[in-house]
Design brief:
Blueprint (H helix, E strand, L loop, with lengths): L2 H21 L7 H25 L2 E7 L5 E6 L1 H24 L6 H19 L4 H20 L4 H30 L21 H18 L9 H7 L2 H27 L1 H4 L3 H23 L3 H21 L3 H32 L10 H4 L1 H15 L5 H16 L4 H28 L17 H19 L2 H14 L1
Antiparallel strand pairs: 1-2
Helix pairs in contact: 1-2, 1-4, 2-3, 3-4, 3-9, 3-13, 3-18, 4-5, 4-9, 5-6, 5-9, 6-7, 6-8, 7-9, 7-11, 8-9, 8-12, 9-12, 9-13, 11-12, 11-17, 12-13, 12-16, 12-17, 13-15, 13-16, 13-18, 13-19, 15-17, 15-18, 16-17, 16-18
């Protein structure tokens, strides 16, 4: 099978399977058969994706939109990183949903769109130029919207509209930049290190810097970067828990991927280093890191607390990228993986609690560790990871981020970065660890005699357990993985 056919199969299989589920809603009489069909689609898509990752680097057009615009696909180290994380998280989230969606309405519709989004994300990860990136970025927004709207309550509809308006507004800001870059001889394909400094590019530096900032801000909307973060804490909590997991763990990272492609594969780090764009970008990320942590600390609804945490933690990644040095990029890419693993697990744990008990408020989780010990141990271990306590993976990524900040030598920012990261880590401990303490140590007034074991079944426990193991193992044995990320960073600078 040629690469083109293999890529087409990886993209089209989940999309076609998703449409099949949408067109046959309510006609699957045997739910076990349906879940086996879904699992088979996940497994085959994963196999196709792994084969693509092992083929080697490639780049070719899929089709031409006009004589000058083409849909171009590309495989490089960055594609492998994002593609691998996408299919892993989507598969585990899907397995978890086999059990979770029993208590939701319209599960065929949910799984249908869930599969379609997977196919679109695989295409997005392969984008080889700005037009292809924008095309699949917008498709991702439109196809993931039903996951937010799923229960069709007034709250869900309002959250879905907010998600749509913010996402489209951000994408249009990025589209303006794409128009400008294409009109002045850039954008036909991505290249490591960027190419706007080439003599063939005719755009003025002042205008180019402005459109690059608009593109960072626009694509940063999906990543929840201030001031375009408002959709995230509204949309994530209303979606079903497995959808919240991938929205937080994967879809927000599509904004990160787009920014990486713009900054390091189109503009070039040297084009932005020392400009007002770099300073403004760093400022916005640090504001978001601190603000998101503060909002999470105050929030009492568990899923919304986790959503605000995502606002903060994804901007850790953007901050590392804005440093424009090797340590910062390594820290950003490692935090992309580690945060994806952790936040998927946290939302799945929250979903398991909701599924078994119906409890959504932090104050109601007193003693839940006695009823669901495995679930809450997973929650606790990945919480420790997100705080950044060694030897978990979160410590490794934050070490590189702090080091990268100090290496810049930028007056004020070199020290502001580590200080705000430390403050955010303290706030992270303040909004996550008390949940575990309350769960396992409910106090003397708790009725220990009436404890009912409510642990979910293996369909829920296995995905949570695998995410938890990954969060810890990456921290204990980071060497090979970090060397791989360093290779990516050195390539794009």
């Amino acid at each position: 099978m040629t690469v083109a056919y293999l890529l087409g199969a990886a993209i089209l299989l989940p999309i076609l399977a998703g449409f099949l589920l949408l067109f046959t809603q309510g006609k699957w009489k045997n739910r076990t058969v349906k879940c086996l069909f879904l699992f088979l689609v996940f497994v085959i898509t994963t196999i196709f994706s792994v084969k693509l990752m092992l083929v080697g680097d490639y780049q070719f057009p899929l089709w031409k939109l006009t004589d000058t615009l083409e849909v171009l696909v590309r495989m490089d180290h960055l594609t492998r990183l994002f593609l691998g994380m996408t299919v892993a998280a989507w598969t585990l989230g899907g397995v978890f949903a086999f059990e979770y969606m029993k208590h939701e309405q319209k599960e065929d519709r949910y799984f249908g769109f869930y599969l379609i989004v997977l196919g679109v994300l695989i295409a997005l990860d392969h984008a080889g130029n700005l037009v292809t990136l924008y095309l699949f970025f917008e498709l991702m927004t439109l196809t993931s919207l039903p996951l937010v709207l799923h229960n069709l309550s007034h709250e869900a509809v309002m959250a879905g509209l907010k998600y749509l308006f913010y996402s489209v507004a951000g994408a249009f800001a990025a589209l303006f930049g794409i128009f400008y870059l294409y009109s002045h001889g850039a954008g036909s394909m991505f290249a490591e290190g960027g190419y706007l400094a080439d003599i063939s590019y005719t755009g003025s530096q002042g205008m180019t810097l402005l459109v690059l900032f608009l593109m960072i801000l626009g694509f940063g909307t999906k990543a929840g970067m201030f001031p375009m973060h408002g959709w995230l804490p509204t949309a994530h909590p209303v979606a079903p828990a497995p959808a919240s997991a991938v929205l937080s763990g994967i879809i927000t990272k599509s904004g990160v991927l787009a920014i990486i492609r713009v900054v390091f594969y189109t503009a070039g780090a040297d084009y932005l280093r020392g400009t007002w764009v770099q300073y403004a970008w760093m400022t916005l990320t640090l504001i978001t890191v601190f603000m998101g942590s503060m909002m999470a600390y105050k929030e009492q609804v568990l899923k919304k607390r986790l959503a605000y945490s995502t606002v903060s933690q994804v901007s850790y990644i953007l901050f590392g990228l804005s440093l424009l040095n090797v340590s910062g990029i390594v820290g950003a890419l490692s935090h992309f993986v580690f945060h994806s693993v952790v936040k998927n697990c946290l939302f799945l744990c929250a979903g398991a609690v909701i599924y078994k008990t119906g409890k959504t408020m932090v104050k109601d989780l007193k003693g839940i560790g006695k009823e669901m010990p495995i679930t809450m141990w997973c929650f606790t271990l990945v919480s420790v990871t997100l705080v950044g306590i060694p030897p978990t993976s979160g410590f490794v990524s934050k070490w590189y981020l702090a080091t990268g900040s100090l290496e810049t030598g930028m007056t004020g920012y070199a020290w502001a970065g580590p200080i705000i990261l430390l403050l955010s880590a303290m706030l992270t401990a303040g909004y996550l660890l008390p949940v575990s303490i309350l769960a396992f140590f409910p106090g003397h007034q708790y009725d220990y005699e009436q404890v009912q074991k409510r642990e979910p079944n293996l369909l829920m426990l296995v995905p949570m357990g695998l995410f938890t193991i990954a969060a810890v193992v990456f921290g204990i044995f980071p060497g090979t993985f970090m060397n791989y990320l360093q290779k990516i960073a050195m390539t794009v600078l």
